[in-house]
Every structure is written in C-alpha cells, then in structure tokens.
Amino acid sequence: MTLSFWTRRKSIDAIAAGHDGHQLKKTLSWPHLVALGVGAIVGTGIYTLTGIGAGLAGPGVILSFVIAGLICICAALCYAELSTLIPASGSAYTYSYVAMGEPVAWFVGWSLILEYTLVCAAVAVGWSAHAAGLFRMAGVPEALLAGPHMGGLVNLPAVFISFAVAGLLALGTRESATVNMVLVFVKIIALAVFVVLCLPAFDASHFTPFMPQGFATVNADGVKVGVMAAASLIFFAFYGFDAVSTAAEETKNPKRDLTIGIVGSMAICTAIYMVVAAVSIGASRTEIFSKSEAPLVFILESLNHPRTAQLVALAAVIALPTVILAFMYGQSRIFFVMARDGLLPKTLARVNPKTGTPVLLTILTGALSAVLSGWLSLKDIAELANAGTLAAFIAVGLSVIILRIKDPGRPRVFSTPLWPLVASGEIFGCLYLFYNLPTKTQVYFLYAHLIGVAVYVLFGLRNSALGRATKAV
C-alpha cells in the first residue's frame, strides 16, 4: 500500500460544483441559523455548569467565562470565513479535508462525533436535573432518575429526552428549526426574569476573594483547580456556533446567512453569559450555589422566589432540548457527510425523500446520546466533549492559515480580521485549555482516537470515495 492517501484533498471548486450523491433540502435562512446557534450555546452551560465552574474558581469564574469566550470568538471568526468560503455540510471535517487532507479530516471528523454525541448526552443529563420533579410526580422510582454515579440504575429522563429530540429532527429540518426558534425565545425570557429578580440582592462583597483557588493550580488531591480549570470546563458553555456551519448545505443563501448565524449567535450569547454569571455571584456566594445541579433555580429559592424558581426550572425543562436539537442536528450531518465520502458505511447517508433528512443517522445519534446520558455524570461528559471540540477548533484555525497561504487570491465573502493573530490565538488558546483538562479526560481522548484510527485503517482508508476516484483516474 502506498502512502498516497496522505495527499487526498477535496477541491473547493469541486465542492462548489455540487455532489452527485444524496442531497439535503435547502430550507433555512439566517433567522433559523441565529436561533440554531443561540439554542445550541445557551443551555446546560449557563443553567448547570455555572455552579460547577464556580466550585473550581470561586468568583474568578467570571474571568473563566471571559477567557473561554475570547477563544470562542476567535474560533467563530475563523468558522465564519471557512463556512462562506466552503459552503458545504461537514463543518471542521470538510474544511480540514480541503486544507490538510483525508487523514487529518478523519481525525477531526472523529473528534466532532465525540463532541456532538457527548454534548447531546451532557445536556440530556442537565435537563434531567430540572425535569426530575415532573417524573417523580408521574410515579417514576428514584432508581430510574439518576445514573450509577449518583447511586441509581439509569437516568431515564435523559434517555427519554434524547429519543424525543431525535424523533423531532427526523420529521424535517425546517419543522424542527421552527420549534427551536420558539423554545429559544422561552429560554431567553426565563434568563431575563432571573436577572431582574436577582439584581436587588446584588452584593459586591461576594466577589472577594476573587480567585480563592488561584489561576491554574493543582490541589492536595492532585485535581486541577482555579480559573483555567474552570475555563476548560466552561468552554463547554460557549461552543455551539459550530453547529451552524453544519447547516451550510441546507441554507438558502449560505454566503450571507452563515456569517450572520455564526457571528450573531456568538455575540448575543457572550453578552447573556456575562450578565447572568455576574448576577449569580452577586446574589449568592459561589461556595453555596456551586453545590447545586440547578444553580439558577437554587439562587432564586434562596432569595424567597419559590414560584419563579419553579417557572425558571420549567423553562429549562422546555428550552434545554434546543441544545440537544442543535447538536444532534450537527452530529447527524457530520455522520452524513463522512458516510457520503465513503469513510463510514454509505447506507448511513440515505436521505428520506419525504422529510429530506437522514432519518437513520438521526435515530442512531439519539440512541448514542441516550446510552451515554443514562449512565455517565455531567462533569465527565462535558470535559470529554470539550476535548473533542478543542481538537476541531485547532483544525479550523490551521485551515484558515493554510488556505490563506495556499490560495490567497480566492474571493472571501467574510474575511477574518487580523487573521494571523486571530487564528493563532485560537490555536494556542485551545491548546492551553486542553492542557488544563483533567489528566483522565486527556487519556480518554487518546483512547477514543486510537479507536478512530483503527476504524479509518480498517474501513475508511479502503472505501474512501475520493481514494477510489483517484485510483480510477
């Protein structure tokens, strides 16, 4: 076997010319994309992980939000350039295929599969924490309301919501996107009510000491703590805009609407996060609400707003599925493009003629999310999802640099400002966040990608559509 597979690259012109395989319907416009991005970004990160991050960094979690947000803004600008330059489904996988070749694209695609599947599972667990009361009222026993890590048998609510969202997505992209827009509105209203009720209780003394665990330290138990450890976890709360880029093939005017969707959703969500995090710390000490799985609800209850706390919890129950929907949508599209390229079984790339969606892949994604969310903890899932995302973001930064050097004259609808600085900042920022992830997470990431290498060597390498076309020529 020769090493020619290292040089297999997709052409931007060939991608622009279209694909002779299964095609997805163009049904989305920029309001759908902004809602998809906001729906993906504002979710478990602000409703649940704020407390866990505060436990690692104290009030310094505000700085953690800033650091993670700046890195994600750099990534969003790079995504905006590449998504309009290469308006095709596949996100970072497709961009890497063009810029760096098939083996790197496979690695990135495998990282995206890891990211999106785990995000769906993590949000399902976060949703379960808010919805558990409703399931108790329905008579579901406690052993079926939590996974083994919490002393239960299986997290049934998390399994339920995973399959429910997969079913909605299977009905059609435009239908699910419309439902998503409505639920995003509910979610934003709930956060606005939280801010208004907590502002009168704001106490600036809660921000002292600002960094009780330091900036980047290891405690007596060997656990990484401090602002950077929290940033590596809270990073989970910011990404989601990359799911917008997976919708390129289903967007009516991708060269305009993708930029609006990616940059617009990121700007809106960064503002929301800063306000909610600051108000949370001002209204309650971090060492108190950091112990709660539903910190915003806990803060409202501690301020004697039990009815409103219930309404916010209900809003989370209603609206958190938008995050699952956005990432499950992105996951099924990554699967779809990789299958269409022959790197996964091509039968998975079949599109239902009535709904215009890859139904089989959507249900498979829901099943994977259900299995993971039923048995694993939120923190472990979120940290491993972050590892996959960081790898994909690094690849996007590298792709911007490589294509700027190799093809500088190609027209770019959106150009990343100060691209050498922004792309480099994204790459080194992501590498530093990856370094600050728990050692266990880094080891699991390595194991997952060793499995991915085996799948590529045993199946993808031999069945690559681009590889077969090259041999034919």
Written description of the protein model:
The protein is built from 20 helices and two strands. It is mainly α and 473 residues long. It has a single domain (26-465), classed as Amino acid/polyamine transporter I. Strand 1 (217-218) and strand 2 (224-225) form a beta hairpin. Helix 2 (30-41) packs across helix 8 (173-198), helix 6 packs across helix 14 and helix 17 (378-406) packs across helix 19.
Task: Provide the descriptors you would attach to this structure in a database record.
Amino acid/polyamine transporter I, 473 residues, two-stranded antiparallel ribbon, mainly alpha, 1% strand, 20 helices
Task: Describe what is shown at a glance.
The protein is mainly α.
Gyration radius from CA atoms, angstroms: 21 Å
Q: CATH superfamily, please? A: Amino acid/polyamine transporter I
What is the total tally of β strands?
Answer: 2
Number of domains: 1
Percentage of residues in helical conformation: 55-70%
